[in-house]
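Sharing a chain and its predicted structure for anyone who wants a worked example. Both blocks are below, sequence first, tokens second.
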Amino acid sequence: MCNKLMDTYPNDANEVDGSGVAIESEQISELCRRIDVLEDRLRQAQRLSAIGELTSTTTHEFNNILTTIINYAKLGLRHVDKTSQTNAFEKILIAANRAAKVANTILAAAKNRKQTFEPVNLIALVDDAMLLLEREMNKYKIIVEKYFPQVAPEIMADGNQIQQILINLLVNARQAMPNGGRLILKIAHDETEEMLDLTIRDYGCGIDEVKLPYIFDKFYSTKSGPDETGKGGTGLGLAACKEIIEQHKGIIRVESKIGKGTAFTLRLPTVIRAKLIELQEKNSSN
């Protein structure tokens, strides 16, 4: 937005609007600065909101893990034979490792760091997101089907940001099926274009075709407000998703039909493609 304003009102000249009021270039620069500050604050608020939702979800997950650890610890104390105790220790270790993975995922998302692009395993990101939401999916009787290749090339991405998008879309899909349903996750490698396509498809209520063109607009929401879990209704999530994907030189698409469900597809460049794009941008700027 600021670039467009500066192009419209060059620094070496003043402009006059329709009412005859002179608009100084310094005023435009100050306006741009304020817009940048507000956008940064909005992105920070979105990040904190996502972390808050994750914390709420993982609190229940940690309770389940602690219950498992306590129960097997009691079992190991009751049974003195080596086989029972070994089995109890193994179950405790599995639960503890799961807790550590959940905690590390939350801590990584909570880090207030600048956007950093590096090779990332998209399959692992999806699996981590599902780890955080597994309890919620089970609670609402969502059957998750995964169709992933055995091996997929890495994408060049900020892993934390992509994971926030995944969690946002997965929660949206769950909310679209309050009475349960199927959730399909599919990853496909377009070898010709060197892109990875991730599709998140639900078979829920769908989105009205009149509303569909506006769902990526800031502050627009198809929801009336938060559901019983306190999630949804801000109108910020999908706009942020689109912005992040475009920063990654990718595309986000949506298909939906009332009563049939919704499918979001994230199309992201592989490391090879990302390096090619970077090289092309450097050559064009020279």
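Comments welcome. The chain has two domains: 1-112, 118-278.
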